[in-house]
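Regression test attached.
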Amino acid sequence: MSDCCSAPGLLPFEQALANMLTQVSPITETISLAIGDAQHYVLAQDIASPLNVPPHDNSAMDGYAFALDSLMSDKTLTLVGRSMAGAPFQGVCQAGECIRIMTGAKIPDCCDSVEMQENVTANDEQITFLQEKSFGSHVRNAGEDINIGQQVLQSGHRLAAVDIGVLASLGVAEVKVYRKLKVALIATGDELKSPGQALRVGDIYESNSFVLAVMLSKLNVDVIDFGIIEDDFEAIKAAFISADEQADAVISSGGVSVGDADYTKTVLDELGEIGFWKIAMKPGKPFAFGKLANSVFFGLPGNPVSALVTFHQLALVALTKMQNAQPLKRTHLIVKCSADLRKSPGRMDFQRGILAVNEAGENVVSSTGAQGSGILSSLVKANCFIVLPSEQGRVKAGEMVNVQLFDQFL
Ligand code: AMP
Ligand code: MG
């Protein structure tokens, strides 16, 4: 029986992640933003409600407000006024009287219940109630959504659409948030050309920086794109120095595997304290991580699937910590595998899977097919990673496996 130790020299995935997280620190600088501009930012303050929401008891229906006691003696009440949303009833009502009321309008102090207009007959000022009512019918109570003083959002919460709505409903116009991180992207390789350029023999199109820039934009960071840097010591050094001066984090792809990593590795050895790790994960074994003079450095493998998976599973988690955001929550399910999966013990696999419901109504997962680390199209059809632990060998159809659903970044 093999385990991770059968792959000597490889760093277990969990250890790599933990090691990386202990080395990155959250930023401290905050800014104030109008709530309409604050979507996707991370809150730098707790938000307690300055008021009750709703602020007063109000009607959930268009109809008539009354005191339940009045209905006990007589089913017909006299209409003496009205309460509209934004224009509450100003007078007082007595026993035997009722008030016309609209949805959202304040319940007059003299009333406690509402009947909808469909359930009464109106004869001039005489309103006859056709059904038995109970105390508080169709009344939305003050504070039933949020109580005054209640903590509504916590520091570290990333603001989504509904949060902006909640802030508005509390009357909060501005919030303190952490500033955006600045992230520099560098693609290395003499063979790389940008889409739109002509390919010479031996060239390929550069795709990593495009994938990473989109994923980073979903993280709400400012991307500084350094484009493609040729495999040349001085060019790489100049790019890394400039990136480090401008950014909180520098992310490069390519040139970190042993053998072809010469320039990147020599440059990084000169500029900072970078660990060149071999992580027991597939795809994505080579990975560099450490600190430059001012920034944190992530060196992703060049192979597009490896770059994407290591960015998603490792760098994104660290960047989230740097943003002060609550840790990413990823959804895992244990589901049945519908066909055999190839796997050798020694590395943790992130196979690309398709999770679906079979004819029997069960969740089942299958592989997207060829899993080579250069096959970016293996991710196009996928909607999850099949996460297979390091010691796991081949998986047989019908066995249960752990899947991680694709999140908002993929
Ligand atoms: P490297 O780690 O530089 O040896 O690159 C490994 C493989 O990934 C090679 O086949 C490269 O051509 C390819 N590669 C490196 N960088 C990129 C990139 N930015 N976009 C697409 N493919 C890349
Ligand atoms: Mg290269």
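Expected vs. actual: identical. Residues 1-6 have pLDDT under 50 and may be disordered.
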